């Protein structure tokens, strides 16, 4: 998914500067579904989506405050388990070569984190502020019991072009919105 996204973004920039491609050209390339439209339309959509998902400093601070409120012993345990999981992800040849972050959920170290339950969600959100830790979405999706608080893309939605890093940002925003709604009610 990530390689496709990077290649498609490069393809967009390169081809939009050279000429306008038609839907049939895009279909033949195998990169985009028919619903996306021309390269220029896709490029505009991509940039609009990028601007839409940027988190404000206030949102980031709220995430940090939520994580700081987590019990210190829970955080210490989470940090240790996360360190173990990340180490296996970065050193296990199968994981290093995998482009599917779902593979990371098959590791024993993932189960330890998952077993900690929803109380670690604020810590996951804080981790997702670092876009390099997009793999934490797998943990969040496994722990989050409310399907309304999970960001999922379909191929008929242009947001699928964003990739997991931006899905992480959308997940943070959705979580923050749910917190605000709880406070307001």
Layout of helices and strands, plus pairs?
Elements: H1 2-18, H2 23-29, H3 39-53, H4 57-68, H5 72-91, H6 93-97, H7 108-114, H8 121-128, H9 136-143, H10 164-184
Helix pairs in contact: 1-3, 4-8, 5-7, 8-9
What can you see in these coordinates?
The chain is mostly helical. It folds into two domains: 2-53, no CATH class; 57-184, no CATH class. Helices cover 65% and strands 0% of the residues. The chain has ten helices and no strands. The protein has helices at 2-18, 23-29, 39-53, 57-68, 72-91, 93-97, 108-114, 121-128, 136-143, 164-184. Helix 1 (2-18) packs across helix 3 (39-53) and helix 4 (57-68) runs antiparallel to helix 8. The longest helix is centred in the C-terminal third of the chain and has 21 residues, at 164-184. The protein is globular. The protein starts with a helix and ends with a helix.
Query: How many domain units?
Result: 2
Q: How confident is the prediction overall: mean pLDDT?
A: 80
Largest sheet: none
General form: globular
- By secondary-structure content and strand pairing, the structural class works out as mainly alpha
**Which range best describes the helical content: under 10%, 10-25%, 25-40%, 40-55%, 55-70% or over 70%?**
55-70%
Strand content bin: under 5%
Detail the poorly predicted runs: 1-29
* SSE order: HHHHHHHHHH
- Kindly, what is the distance between the CA atoms of the first and last residues, rounded to a whole number of angstroms? 39 Å
Tell me how many strands there are: 0
Number of alpha- plus pi-helical segments: 10
Radius of gyration: 19 Å
